[in-house]
Each structure stands twice: as structure tokens, then as C-alpha cells.
Amino acid sequence: MPPQLPPESHYDPKKLGMIFAIVTIILLLSLIGIFVKDYAREWKGYQRDFRTQEVEKARVKKDAELKELAKNEEYQGVLKDLETAKKNQKAKESSIQAVNRQIFAAEAVSKRHTQQIQFAKAEYDSLKYQYESAASHKSSNAPKLKERLDKLSAKIEDLRLKVENDNKLVKEKTAQLKDLEKDSKELEKKRMAATKKLEILDRKLKRIDIAEMSAANQFADMVRDLPIIELANPNYKIRQIVVKDIPEDVNFMKIQRVDRCTTCHLGIDNPDFKSAAQPFRSHPNLELFMDKNSPHPMQAFACTTCHGGRGRATDFISAAHTPQNEEQKKEWQKKYHWEPLAHWENPMLPATMTQAGCFKCHSGQEVVKGAEKLNLGIALIERAGCYNCHVIDKFKDWPKSGPTLEYIASKTTKEWAYHWIENPRAIRPDTWMPQYFHQSNNSDPASVKRSEQEINSIVHFLFANSKPFEAKPVAFTGDAVKGKELVASVGCMGCHKVDIKKEENRDRNSLNREFGPNLIGLGNKTSQAWLFDWLKDPKRYHPGTRMPNFRLSDQEAADIAAYLIQDKSPVVDKPIPGIDEKVLDTIVSDFLQKSDTVANANDKLKSMKKDEKLLFAGQRLIREYGCFSCHNIAGFENEKPIGVELTNEGSKSVDRLDFGFVHIDHHSKIAWFNQKLKDPRSFDHGKVVKPLDRLKMPNFYLSDQETEAIATALMGFVKDRPNDNKLTGNSAKAKFINDGQTIIRQFNCQGCHTIEGDGGSIQTSVNDWLMNFEGKTADEAKALLAAYSPPDLISEGAKVQAQWLYEFIHNPETKIRPWLKVRMPTYGLDNSRINALVKYFNYLDDEEFPFTEMYHPSMTKEEFKAAEHLMSAEAFDCAKCHVFGQSMPHGTPDSWGPDLMQAKRLKPEWVAEWIKNPPAIKPGTKMPTFFDPNDFDNAGPADILNGDENLHIKALRDYLMTISADPSQYNPHEAAK
Amino acid sequence: MEVIKNFINMIADPKILFNIVVLGYLIVFPPFKFFQTIHDRLHVSFLWTKKGGIAIFSFLFFVFAFGLFDQNFRLIVLKPDNLPIVALIFLVAFFLWLAMTQAAENDAAIAAGGKPKEWAESREKVLVFPDLVYIEFICLIAAAALLAVWAIALPAPLEGPANPTVSPNPSKAPWYFLGLQEMLVYFDPWLAGVMFPTAILVGFMCIPYVDRNRKGLGYYTYNERRTAINIFMFYWLVLWVFLIIVGTFLRGPNWNFFGPFEYWDHHKLIALNNINLAELFWMIGLKQGMPTNIFLRELPGFLIIGAYFGLLPAILAKTVFKGLYERMGTVRYSIFAVLFLLALLLPIKMYLRWLFNIKYIIAIPEFFFNI
């Protein structure tokens, strides 16, 4: 077979041409696709929508404005006048034109002369140089040059004169013209002023509304957004805010925060878009955020600073939006195909938890005004004592939450302690003592057996190690009925409750009343003698206690003890399980093997007696569960907290949280926190864990609302801090205020007092006392409530002298409101704390440091008499409401005022301000305004001290300061005449 | 369904899957008579026909269609990063089928006493236009269009800012290096990361010098180049492509194995009780302590490696590769044998790991020398 000739090609060129054409077209289409994809961005659609809405809103506004103007008679009058003025002006037209021409001509001459001057000056400078050079070289033509120079100088002078004359002429003529046009110009100005708003709207519409644009602008408007051309100056463009001073922390490096959120959220700072649909809706609180004049202007803070999320993103998903609930999640999935943004560690906070963002800058404040959820979270952390086991920077050096257990044997019984540890809520439903046992990871029968022996060991250890304490015997028999009234009235209820029910919706106010334990079930917890001793002097039993001394008399203390000892908890009487040595052995052996070889551990276990085992297990278990974190226990003084540090918990990466086998959709920090707080042991579910390796966090039985509040606070504990200038609490003043706030929180001052508008929690129980013990009706009680409650400490720093305040806090025996049943107790605070409080009140009221010294008034006889008169019943009748030492006013306490014989404690400037206008200092005060601020000069009696009101006030002030400093000067009966 | 999925998960364990793949390879590309018999009995050559192609692709599509009903399978396979590997499976299958089908046709023609299809044109001249240049140009344009469409449809998967304290788990090499990364499981980094890649490159350079067989030049054939194709296919399909697929789809967090329908649980733990050969020899075999002298300690390893590269080529030359040795001569045979054995180390090490938990044959961590 001869070799076949190969074909010229395997392919048909025509077919190949076709394929080539098709492939080329596909390439072209895909390139166009790239352009389309690049051009058609999600945000452009939003910007177009927004423009339409903006135009609509501007049109509506314009129409309203036009209607307004049509109704405005003044404006219509101006228009009419303008018309006549214009008509009048027509008559003068020829003369106006003539003057205009003259001005034009004069200006031309002036300009020409000015130019001549400029040229001559240039020539002069050049000639000057030539002459100077020639003169210094002693050149022969120097004199000649000098001559020319002088001539030129004279010419310039001459020209100057001419210009001045020209200008004068122009000025004259201009004035003449102005005079001719005066009427119409003035009216025109008036018209412009009236239509200013309209003008702005018009200008805006011309800019954005195609219908109002000129043809050229319409064309430009279309062209500027075409592909490629849009790089120059498009309508629709990404808007970004570069935030100074609040950098983004991207792991070991800080970068500038750049937020492009406003690319879609276009109406965020525009009050017109208050009820617009998202994404255009304006910020719900423009007074506080976004607005130029708010404390958080948009350009300085932008969005992700508080909200989190990915600021650089320009579409819905990559901005890391987070839905606030399941419903919204479903809606978003449908609308935007939402899914959590993988690989972004700080997704946006859900709208319900945005307040977490406040903490970043406001961590130096105890309470962030307006961030109620965050505040509640912090207050709950404080009350639950999370900081005892978990280090949190904010709560550094805070006192331990629980009572001391160093002398427990003298206070209670082993039975009570057992039942308490096992299930504190069975004894007190609202206690803050968390529960370690009967939890989801130790409720199987074997674990319950083990738990019983664990509790036995702990109780045994605590009682065996208890130091001796001798409660003083009660010398008095108490009256429980009187005791009940005392508890209700003397001030116990600022921190305690006597209530078997658990508060359903705890808020910051009710938390103040859970500062101390609920005083139920004391009958089988402790003895009457111990209670008596404790009430008389809490510091005797526990020097570190925050329970203050109410300076109760022996009888009062005995009465209260008799009352409190009545209530018994049925739970405590149940028998407790005996010691099961087999189970105890496994516990001891587990601990021994942790730190020793198996053989050694076994030997040790064999050699131990039952008692030793109990002690050993008890000690190890206290360390294991961290009991010492909240309670003082001898031998555990130097132990470290057992929990994870939470200072930067909000910045923790989700990868570092163990979700175990708990099924949670979309692993997120918030979901984990909520789950952990609801059931702290749940991440052990389905795991095989040895007893000592189990999760140990106890259960606080928090409500959903409470877990969310705490989770909000945790989300706020982030590591990225703003630069110092954006940090609140960075000034010395803020620091002093914060120090004071911390003490106020630590000692629960707001349980009784209203401070910075917060607190006064005791008022509910004052109300109860008025109704239950004083027989008042609800309305009466309401009226009397303020009078019988501890005072609101508004403007306290401005009001009282620092020295007095110091002494009062140190020893508050002075009675300013003698009718009050509530007592200011003695806290036994150390110097530094009292000073911190004094500084706090003063800095809060912007008082300068050092604070005002004691005031020594000097009065003339005339002033003294005038003051006496002003205070008498004929004039202001101060004694009608104010207590004067021993003399009580008439009427009921709801109208009574503080003891004026204590006025020496006050700051003189404040007293003057107070007399002058009380409501300005304390809105709603019952103190009458004697000097009408609207007619101050005629407010006081004209016949006294020349009718000078300022002198009246000074006299009153000095009189008060004098009599209170030296009561012998004062005779209440004489004053009352 | 659950049972089937669990079964697939079970056999996806590389200890089993690797054997299945090797067995499949041996049947499809039979090196010995024994496998040839099975090959013939099973009518494997059916695969290299048009119907066979349809069967191959139907099977692949079925596997993916079945898998996509499973959430875990979907999660991994539909990840934009993994698109090239999914494409790789189909493309490798297609080109393998294409080449083998043409080879089968030619082989049939040769067996019938004829010439291969491309014989004539590969003798006289090579067709350049439009057969080469124009086609290439069209392909270039098509590829560019494909990349553009791909970029539009599946935007590049970007991740968050790098965090030195958090490494992604699993941390995977780019897909084309996953085979190499898989080797790291069995070998010391300097071997898997440096020596073997170098050996692969050197090996490629050696091919024209080692293999001077002119048969099959310019046309597809299998029968005329069985040994070469069999060896290449083993390394390409089993040790490269298969390992990339394993690395992509079956290696999850902590580089653990996960079945295709298994959830990638970060907490999954697998006991890795590996021991060195020296420990196996001295402690378990001879029940005595390890010698303090490093070289004495590692003597068994040295002996084995020495024998593997020193004695084995000679033994092979006398037995299995007798014909090959005679054809190639000593020098070329030696080069071939060393390369061949070097590459064979990988499957051997895999088996040693799976059967005896052997970590290293020679382990001298004192000098960072481990094999």
C-alpha cells in the first residue's frame, strides 16, 4: 500500500472561522459582563432611590414654603411695594444711566493712572539699584542717575494725587447712584430675607431634580455617571468617613477606621428621614449621635466605632450586619440572602445590643447615661460578683461579694450551711449566691452522691477552721413588732429586702435593694445573740464588711433581732446525708492523684483518718470551686481567681470558645455568652468528663433579659481603645468623679440617696412604711414620700462645705431633717474614701479645688435687723416650714425643710443662689421662690435695706450663717413674732 | 441512605481507599499477567470506547449528584476555592478517556496489521495552520472568556485580616501543592518539601535520556508503551491527582481525615501513636533499652535504607526488570531504578504508617535527619 498523503488539515477552515467568531463574541460578552458587574453596584441603586426621595421631600417642602409665603401678608406687602418702587425707578432711569456712565468713565481713568504708577514704581526700583550701585563704586554718572531718580519720584507723587482724585469722584458718583436706587434695593433685601428658605430649597432642587435643571445640566447629569466617565465627578459615588483617633485593631496593628456605611445609609444625619424605610432612615437619636452639634458628630465618630461591623464594606453582607432576632434573620435571608460574614471577627452588634459599643470609650464611667442595658449588665456583673472569679479591669480591687466565713461556726449551723451550699435558692429565692450543685453536668445519680460528700467536706472544713467569735449576750428582750417597724423605717431597706418572692423584672433600682441579703429565714440560720451583736457593730464580726452601723440603741437592736429571728426556712430542718466514706475516698483520691503518684496517693489515702479526709477534700474543693473568691476563708488569702479574665472578652475570637456538642446556629460570641449564662455547664453536654475536669461555673439563674444585659456588657469589654483624647474619663476631673462613683457603687449610697438622678431605691419601702405603719392612704403616702425619704444629693458639692461634708460622712450624727426616720448610718470609711467622696461631689458641681474654706460673716446691726424681719412671719416666715433647732414647724412633714440651725454647713455662695432662685438648683423643690426672677428688682420689700434685693439675700444668708454658728444669737420666739 | 453514607465514609478512610485506588489502577493498567486476566475478564477495555466514556461521566455525575444532597458534602465541594479540584476530577477523567480511547483504536489497528491514525502525518510533516496555531488561538480566547466568567460568577474568596495568633484550621496549601502537603504527613519536611520535589524535577529531566523507546512517537498507543504508561499513570493518578483530591476533600481540621459526608468537627480526635523503627526493633522486638550510640540505635534503619537503594535495584534487575535492564544498560537502568525506588518510597511509607505506625525508618532528631 503506497503511503497515503496526509490531508492539508483536519479541520474545515469555515467551521473554524465560525468557532473563532463565536468564541470571540463570548469573550466580548464576558468583558462586557466584567464592566456591568463592576458598574452595577448594590449601593448605586440605593443612592438613586435616595435621590428620588430627597427630591420628593424637597418638593413637598418647597410647596409648603410657597403656601406659607402666599399667606404671609408682610411678604405680600413687600412684593407690592417692590413693584411700585420699580415703577418709580423707571422715571429716574435716564439719570441713573447717566451716573452709571460717569462712574464707568471715572473708573477707566483711575485704572489708567494706577497702571502708570505701577510702571513708574518698577522703573524707580530699577533706577534706584543702578544709582546705589554707581554711588558705592563712586561712578561718575551717579549724580545723573540721582537726578533721574528724583524726577521719577516726583512723577509718582503726582500720579498718586491723580488716582486719589479719580477715586473720590467714583465714590461720589456711586453714592449718588445708591441714593437713586435706594428704595428698590432695600425692598429687594427684605424680599430676599423672606425667601431665604425657598432659595435654599430651590438651589437644592436645581442640583438634584432633573426636572428643574437646565438642558445642559440635564445632559451633564446623565453623562457624569456613565461607565469610565464616572471616575471624574459622578453623582453616585462611595461616601466614606475617615475617623481620627478611633483606630481599628487588626491584631498587633492599628489602622485608621474608614466607614463607608453612609454610602447606603444616606439619610442617617438628616431629620427629614426619620420615618423613611431602611437604609435611609435617620439615626433614632440625633440629639446624641450623628448630628453636627451632638456629642458624637458623624464626622468624628462614624458608625463602626459603636456598632461594629466592617466599615469598608459597601454591600449588605460584607458589612457584617447582624440580625437582632430570628424574625429579622429570616427576613434578611429572604431579602438580602443574608449569611454571617465568615472571617470577620467583629460583626455588627445586633441592634438590641448596640450599647455594648459605648463601653469602649466610656469605660471610665460607672453609669453611661442613656445606655440602660449596658448599665444593667454592669450592675448585674457587680451584684453577681462575676469579677471575683474573673479578672475584669473595671472591677480591679473591688471588695469581695460574699460575707466572711472565718468565724462561720459562731454564726450558723452545719445543717444550714449544707442546705445553703446545696441549693441556696431553696432558702432564699432571690439570693445572689450561685448554685454549684444539681446542675446539668452533675445531676446523674453518681454525681449527686459525690456532690453530697463534697458539700459535707466543704462544710466540715469551714467549721473546723472557723476562728472563735463570742457574740455579746442580749441583755434586752426584744419586741418583734417594734422590730418590724424599725426594719421598715430605719433604713435597712435601702440594701435589704424581707420578702420571700423573687423580683420578676430586676432593674438597676431594684438591684440596689439586693445589695445585702434578703433577711428571710434567719430563724434557723443564726442566733438572736449573733444578730444583736451584728446589728450593734457589724465591724466587730467582720472588719471588712460594707454593712454600716446604724447607731441603734440596745433596745432597738434587740427589737430588730427579735423580729428577724422569727422567720425560719423549712428547708434547713431537713436531715442532711451522712458521711459516705467510699465516695469520700474517691474524691480524696482524685485530688491526691492530681499532685502525686498513684502509689503515693493510695498510701496517703490509706493512712488518712476520716476527719483528715474531710478536711483535705474540703480544702481542695474550696480551691477547686473558688469559694474563696467571694468569701474570706482562712488559709486562702493569696489564692488567684479561678476564672478566665474577661477584660477583653468582647474581642475574643469565636474559635477560642468551646461550643462542645451544643447545637447553636451560626457560632457567635453573643450566642455563646447567652448559653453560658443561661446554663453555665451546658457545654459539657454529651462529653465524657471526669469530675475534676468538669465545667465549674455556678448557675445564677438569670432571666433572659438579664443574660442579654450581661452579654451586652461582655461584648463591650473590648481590647481596641480609642486614642486618649476620645476617651471619656481621661481628665483629672473625670477621674475624681469616677473614683467617687466607684465608692458610691461599692457602698450602695444610691440605695437611699438619689445621686446624679439615679437611685433612691429605698423610696418604695418608705412608701410601704407610711401606709403600713403610719396608716396613710396611698395618696397621702405619695405626698409625704419625698419628705420622709433620704435627700436627693443634687448639687451637694455646691451646697455644703467640704470640711462639713467630710465630718458628716465620718460621723453623721447631725440631724438636719429631724423628722426623718431613716438614718444616715456610719460607714467607718477611711480617710482616702471620704476625701474621694468630698472631691466627687465638688467636682461634679464644677467647684474649684481647693474648696471653699469656712465662712465667718460680719453683719451690721441694720442688716441683722433686716434679716430678722425678712425671716419673720410678716415677711417670708421661714419657721413655717424649716426646723429651727429644737423648734419644729407646723403642719405635716411633706412641707418641712431642713434645720436652719445647721446652715453653717452650707457654702455661702450656694445659700445666696438658693434663696435667690431655688428651682434653678433643684427643679420641683417645695422651697418657695421669694425673689421672682422675672422681676427681680422689685421682688423684695422696698422699705428694707433700700429695697436692694441683693442686699436682702446677703443679709438673710449672713444671718443664717451667724445664728447657726452661734445659736445664742438667735431667739426663735422673737423671730417668729 | 444513612447506611450508605456511613459506608462511604468508612471506605473513604485512606487506609482503605488507597488500597481500592491501587487495586483499581492495577486492574485498569495491568502490569502483570494476573491483573491482565482480571482486566480481560472485566472487559475494562470497554471504558475506552464512546459508550465507556458516557459510562465514566455518568458515574462521576451520579456520585456528585448523590453527594450534593448531603449538607456536609455540599459544604466542601461547593466552596469556591475547591472549584478547580472538582473541575480537575472531570478534566483528568476526560483527557484520560480521550487519550486511552484513541490509543485503543490505534492499538486495534496495529494489531490488525495496519498503521495508527496519526501515522502518516507524523512522518512527513506537521500541520501548523490552522491545526496548531489557529486552534491554540481559539483556545486562548475561550480560556480568557472562561476566566472572566468565572471571576464574575464566583468572586475571589477573600478572608479576614491576618491574625498571627489564629491560624486557619485546616491550613491548606494551594490546591496544586496539596499532593506535596500530603507527603508531609509521612515524611520529614526536608524530604517531602525539598528532596522529593527536586527528585521529581530531576526525574522529569531524565525521562528523555532514560526512555529512548521511539515507539508511540506522534501517535496514541498503550500496548506499545505499557511499562512507561503504567509507571507514569501510577505516579500521576495515584500519587498526585488522588492525593490532591484527598487533601482537598478528605483532610479537615487538624489535618484529620473526614469522610465525604462527615461534618468537619474541630474537636475530632484521632490517636496518632507513631513509633520509629528503632523503637520497634529495640524496645518491642528485642525488649531492651535503646542503645545510647546514635548510629547503633539507628542501625536497622540504615541497613534497610542501604539495602533498599543498594541491593534492591540489583535484585530487580535480575527478576522483574530483567528485560528492562538488558535493554537500558547499567547506567540508565541505575538512574531509572533510583528514581523509581525513590518515588516508591511514598506508598511504602504510607503502608508502613498504616500497618505498623512507623514514623521514621531512620530517626536522628539530633541532626534533624529523619527518613
What does this structure look like?
The complex is a heterodimer of chains A (977) and B (371). Helix content of chain A is 50%, strand content 2%. Chain A is an all-alpha fold and 977 residues long. In chain A, the strands form three sheets. In chain A, strands 1-2 form a two-stranded antiparallel ribbon. Chain A has a two-stranded parallel ribbon with strand order 3-4. Chain A is extended and about 125 Å long. Chain A starts with 12 loop residues before the first helix and ends with a helix. Chain B is mainly alpha-helical and 371 residues long. In chain B, helix 4 (50-68) packs antiparallel against helix 6 (83-111). Chain B has helices at 2-11, 14-28, 33-41, 50-68, 71-77, 83-111, 119-124, 133-153, 178-184, 189-210, 226-250, 277-285, 294-297, 299-310, 312-318, 322-356, and strands spanning 363-364, 369-370. The model of chain B has no long low-confidence stretch (mean pLDDT 88). Chain B is built from 16 helices and two strands. Chain B is globular and about 70 Å long. Chains A and B meet through helix 1 of A and helix 7 and helix 8 of B.
Task: Give a concise summary.
The complex is a heterodimer of chains A (977) and B (371). Chain A is mostly helical and 977 residues long.
Topology:
The complex is a heterodimer of chains A (977) and B (371).
Chain A: H1 13-39, H2 42-71, H3 73-91, H4 93-136, H5 142-194, H6 196-208, H7 215-223, E1 241-249, E2 254-259, E3 289-290, E4 296-297, H8 298-301, H9 304-307, H10 326-336, H11 359-362, H12 372-384, H13 386-389, H14 408-411, H15 414-422, H16 424-427, H17 445-464, H18 480-489, H19 508-512, H20 528-536, H21 538-541, H22 554-564, H23 581-595, H24 598-607, H25 610-625, H26 627-630, H27 669-678, H28 704-716, H29 732-746, E5 754-755, E6 758-759, H30 763-772, H31 778-788, H32 796-799, H33 802-810, H34 831-844, H35 861-871, H36 908-916, H37 918-921, H38 949-965, H39 972-976
Parallel strand pairs in A: 3-4
Antiparallel strand pairs in A: 1-2, 5-6
Chain B: H1 2-11, H2 14-28, H3 33-41, H4 50-68, H5 71-77, H6 83-111, H7 119-124, H8 133-153, H9 178-184, H10 189-210, H11 226-250, H12 277-285, H13 294-297, H14 299-310, H15 312-318, H16 322-356, E1 363-364, E2 369-370
Antiparallel strand pairs in B: 1-2
Helix pairs in contact in B: 2-11, 4-6, 6-11, 9-10, 9-11, 10-16, 15-16
